[in-house]
Amino acid sequence: MPSWKDQMPSLGTLGPLIALVLACGFFALQSEQFLTGANFSLILQQVMVVGLIAIGQTLIILTAGIDLSCGMVMALGGVVMTKMAHDHGLHPIVAISIGFAVTAGFGLINGLLVTRIKLPSFIVTLGTMNIAFALTQLYSQSQTITDLPAGMTLLGNTFAIGQTQVAYGTVVMLAMYALSWLWLRDTATGRHIYAVGNNPEATRLTGIATHKVLLLVYVLAGLCYGLAALLSVARTGVGDPNAGQTENLDAITAVVLGGTSLFGGRGMIIGSLIGALIVGVFRNGLTLMGVSSVYQILITGILVILAVATDQLSRKGGR
Question: Three-state SS string across 18-50, please?
């Protein structure tokens, strides 16, 4: 009969949630503004773009890969959809669809290079990151796209829950996490993703087409970046060619803090949401305390190192 210790959730599962609760408790003691509905709504709006990117990043990291191009691909998708609507007068739905096609196309290219040519995901996505950045600047002529139709910024609007205004984009992000969690937990394809990350060769020998699983993961990640681009446009009201320059590292930070192993095969998608919220809470709380943004970056870096060290120690302990 398993002991109570064996039945308890692992540190990798509970750790991120405990860290989030402790951070909220600390900042609540430091600022009266922290524990307000308006501030929590602001935190969710601030993390919704990175949160969406982190879903795609989680899928890739679960397969023991990594995607450095996510932020730049998101920026390119945002510029494409806004220019299609503004310059060419396309209906917002058509313009948004073209933007999604571009981001999914980059995901497909990444996936094909990883699966067919067997290039490391780090090298592939480092290259496509630079390609996406160059295309974004060339296509936009480094100019911000403004005067967008209302349909492009709809998800940036808010609705009231009590006295708190909540953005529709926040609801979309939370719904995407719920759907992704159910998909990974309850479908064969979701379980195959974990299997590929754990042991791709053993998974292949069981008859699972590992290259198809990987290709699906990269395309789905690209679609997540497209949705993140739409949320970014909705929140800012513009197509910004300079967007996405730090979102790749922010998304990886969220995934790592959320307990997903960089070695693949282990982690929960909800953990990435918690990781994004941890970063958002720290930045918001430190801002309320008047702490310089330099220290915010410093603390975020320390948190990432601690999270990776915890993952490494837990893996050694499990051997």
Answer: HHHHHHHHHHHHHCCCCCCHHHHHHHHHHHHHH
